[in-house]
Amino acid sequence: MKIERVLIRHVRVPLKKPFRTAETERTDSDNVIVQVVLEDASSGYGEGVPRDYVTGETPATCFDFLRHAATGLIGTSCADFAEAAELAAALPFGDDPLRPQCAARCALELALLDAAGKRFDTSVSKLVEVLPDVASIVQQREEVRYGVVLSASTGSLKALVYRCFGFRDAKLKVGTDAARDLEFVRRMRKRLGPKIDIRVDANGAWSPREAPKLMRKLRKFEVSFVEQPVTKGDTAELAHLRERGQLPVMLDESLVSERDAQLAVDAGLCDAFNLRISKNGGLIPLVHLAKLAEDNRIGVQLGCHPGETGILSAAGRAVACSVRKLLYLEGSYDQHLLRRNVIREDITFGRGGRAPRLDGAGLGVTVVPKKLDALTVECIEIT
Do both 53 and 164 map to the same domain? Predict the structure, then answer.
């Protein structure tokens, strides 16, 4: 396997309906897709979702990073999938440790692993088996179950449908207004019923003053976790909230790098990590963060970014089917959220969130060039 060239694309993915969080509302998603082309003209694809409010990245900063990182890969050879995994593990995060280029690195890493998997007829879900020091978190399975994410605009009828279709857990997006948040959670608990596990995600929108009060009131609705209750920079308040023990705390925006994760462990900031492949820099960094969490008795949620195409959905499936003790799974929302996709297969989860293992080589999905071209805003080639 020898790398001949790399293509870097800025793609704009249209959503079926606006997706709202406490930080933003979006009708499309600006993603970066990398294509690694081998000497036999076969290709591997990877994707990153730059979010300025999460990792500080934009498509432009991703392009700047990838021009340099991809140039260093041209002409590189690998003898087998394990050697390609070593090459992927060595990919940089950029020059600033406080501002790692996670989405950009993720796109390049996934493209490299996808190309290697196809060349050596190996599923990327086998990656954890060739990585050193993570054997304790490996658990291969044939099927996984995803949860649903509901916003304040979700109607009661839709919540009842999720309940009837057998979903086991739901995340509620809050953080717009305290009174509305409580009413939304009350309404969803009533419609979803007592058996569905409910957690809430404030996206850092609550103030240090209101967060403890809201968390105390949410207890009566049997909420399992509060994700990112206050802004990611408020470390002292995160520690204080957890000490008060109103509800278990999950970190998301506060948890980007390994440095962030170690700080969370050392300072006792949380009970769970929300890990996202793009946010955390790729599959390999994410797996090591999952190992760090397990070693310190911290739970792990595998999350995703709204607007991920089937490339990242497939990468998430590889993690979901090979890493044990995942509290919750988010992802594979393709047909539910995307107006247009870039892959041939439909890997959207089914009834009750069920989704099978993808056993094809590489990521197990086929990118359709015409579909990719139709969404491309800008493309550069590194040779």
Answer: no
Same domain, 217 and 296: yes
Q: Quick one: 88 and 184 in the same domain?
A: no
- Percentages of the chain per state (helix, strand, coil), in multiples of 5: 35, 25, 40
Same domain as 199, residue 327: yes
Range in 12-21, 76-85, 104-113, 291-300 with the lowest mean pLDDT: 12-21
Q: The domain spanning residue 77 has which CATH number?
A: 3.30.390.10
Q: Which domain holds residue 98?
A: 3-121+369-382
CB neighbour list of residue 224: distance below 8 Å, 6 or more residues apart: 197, 198, 199, 247, 248
Asked if 376 and 10 touch (Cβ cutoff 8 Å), the reply is yes
| Same domain membership, residue 11 and residue 141 | no
- Sheet containing 326-329: which strands, arranged edge to edge? 148-150, 169-173, 197-201, 223-227, 249-251, 272-275, 299-302, 326-329
Segments of 279-347 assigned E as strands: 299-302, 326-329
Instruction: Return the H-helix or E-strand segment holding 312.
Output: helix 310-320
* Residue 292 CB contacts under 8 Å (≥ 6 apart), including other chains: 258, 261, 262, 265, 298
CB-based contacts of 140: which residues, under 8 Å, 6+ apart? 125, 321, 322
**pLDDT tens-digit readout, 106-115:** 999 999 999 9
Mark whether 106 and 153 lie in a shared domain: no
> pTM of the entire structure?
0.95
